[in-house]
Amino acid sequence: MSRKLESIDIEVNERKGTSAPTWEVVIPGKRSIGIIEQEEERYHVVSSKTNHSLYSKTLESAINELLSYFTLHEK
């Protein structure tokens, strides 16, 4: 069974004042999807709702992993 493709508008906002480079991925006007932190040479992704952890090699792939997880498990 396949799901209908749908576009999700997101914003990626950099958080200031943290020890490591950190970004928050949000659906504007609705809710936070998750947080991405850079750890040495990889990116640690944590979903907001379930605190599920993922790791990626680039920021772009971290965002894509978070969106995929959100679409499949949290939406």
Question: Explain this structure to me?
Answer:
With 75 residues, this protein is α+β, with helices and mostly antiparallel strands. It has one domain. It is 21% helix and 40% strand. It has one helix and five strands; from the N terminus they run βββββα. The chain has one helix at 59-74, and strands spanning 11-15, 22-27, 31-39, 42-47, 53-56. It has a five-stranded antiparallel β-sheet with strand order 1-2-3-4-5, covered by helices on one side. A hairpin with a 3-residue loop joins strand 2 and strand 3 (31-39). The longest helix has 16 residues, at 59-74. The chain is globular and about 40 Å long. This is DUF2969 domain-containing protein. It comes from Lactobacillus johnsonii ATCC 33200.
